[in-house]
Amino acid sequence: MLDFLQELAPFAVPLAALFGLLTGSFLNVVIYRVPVMMERGWTAFAKEHLGLVLTAEERQPFNLIKPDSRCPKCHAPVKPWQNIPVVSYLLLGGKCGSCKTPISKRYPLVELLTGVLFAVVAWQYGWTVVALGGVVLTAMLIALTFIDADTQYLPDQLTLPLVWLGLLFNLNGAFVPLTSAVLGAVCGYMSLWLLCYIYKLLTGKIGMGGGDFKLLAALGAWLGVGVLPVLVFMAALIGVVAALVMRVAKGQQFAFGPSLAMAGWLIFIANDKITAAVKWWLGASGF
Ligand SMILES: [Zn+2]
């Protein structure tokens, strides 16, 4: 079995791309359903607490598998051949097969993005355990990025497993020594928590969500404590640029999770180059 796997090594990049397209299709489901599952969970919890009865609709199972995917407009079920990443979208001309309602371009774009990023991971790390961990990290970061951008939530159902997975990934020092991973998780959480606490003391406002602390803890667990300063610096830079490009108005809510996720992914792919670039930039600007 292992010999057979080794023979696939030369095809790491195309195989990763293909696996990425399929994973992207599943991520579309995660991105759409996890926030709905969260809200349904809260409603059920609140109603139970208040002694209220759930409606028949609220009692219906809703998870990543059930109910089956349907067109949101005409409720036509999605047929198996309509589930092929990117290809189905093109075959359907970007419209529902039954009622011709346009399908969001985001579905094929998430699939393509996942395919490309998985390929980059395989190109950088080859057919290795680090690459395998890398595709898991990439998939989780894509899901978190889109969910946070859509809803301003970074669900515990994704951030907490990402912390544990990062610690397991580095149990034998796959990416960084375990000590660095544990310190990364703790310092990642504490640094943003402290920053937020001080900000609240000074301004009386909450500047950031608790999900951001957990996401940085997860990135610390995967990438080690050493990269945290550069990671936060880069995430802030990406956040500022994104806010300017998207013309986010002052005081308007702005999701920081996508910036953290992007900075973390870039550091996973090219830590040396990025650290060198940040040091050069800070030096050149007189820090
Ligand atoms: Zn339809």
Automatic annotation (TrEMBL):
Top-rank lineage group of the source organism: Bacteria
Chain ranges of the Prepilin type IV endopeptidase peptidase domain: 136-243
InterPro entries (UniProt xref): Peptidase_A24A_bac, Prepilin_IV_endopep_pep, Prepilin_pept_A24_N, Prepilin_peptidase/N-MTase
Topology in membrane: Multi-pass membrane protein
Catalytic activity annotation: Typically cleaves a -Gly-|-Phe- bond to release an N-terminal, basic peptide of 5-8 residues from type IV prepilin, and then N-methylates the new N-terminal amino group, the methyl donor being S-adenosyl-L-methionine
Listed GO CC annotations: plasma membrane
Annotated ranges, domain Prepilin peptidase A24 N-terminal: 18-125
Entry's localization field: Cell inner membrane; Cell membrane
Main subcellular localisation: membrane
Keywords for the protein's UniProt record, in alphabetical order: Cell inner membrane, Cell membrane, Hydrolase, Membrane, Methyltransferase, Multifunctional enzyme, Protease, Transferase, Transmembrane, Transmembrane helix
Keyword Transmembrane helix: yes
GO molecular function, one term: methyltransferase activity
Annotated TM spans: 12-32, 129-147, 182-203, 215-245, 251-270
EC number of the protein: 2.1.1.-, 3.4.23.43
A GO biological process held by the record: methylation
Function, in words: Plays an essential role in type IV pili and type II pseudopili formation by proteolytically removing the leader sequence from substrate proteins and subsequently monomethylating the alpha-amino group of the newly exposed N-terminal phenylalanine.
Family from the record: Belongs to the peptidase A24 family.
Protein name, UniProt field: Prepilin leader peptidase/N-methyltransferase
Organism in which the protein naturally occurs: Neisseria dentiae
Lineage, highest ranks first: Bacteria, Pseudomonadati, Pseudomonadota, Betaproteobacteria, Neisseriales
